[in-house]
Amino acid sequence: MILATVTGHVVATQKSDELRGSNLLLVTALGDDLEPIKDRTYVAVDSVGAGVGDQVLVEEYFALHKHDYKAMSIVAIVEKIHQGR
């Protein structure tokens, strides 16, 4: 899983049948310091109702139809992060 921040929305007027009705969000991976990692931005299917600014967990290949396509999916909205120092 990837810890990320939602940074935007993706609008696609044409989608595969499996993605119709799904929201697509732009997510940027976070490093150990919880800062965005440069060049680690992805598009993910939102399955939990996340919004811009939310910290989320993204599963790299969590798809309902894995045999048809591989899609990144947002699987959780993170409430708190506790780091041991």
From TrEMBL:
Keywords: Bacterial microcompartment. It is found in: Bacterial microcompartment. InterPro entries: EutN_CcmL, EutN_CcmL_sf. Pfam families: EutN_CcmL. GO terms for cellular component: bacterial microcompartment. It comes from the Bacteria. Transmembrane segments: none annotated. This is Ethanolamine utilization protein EutN. The keyword Membrane does not apply.
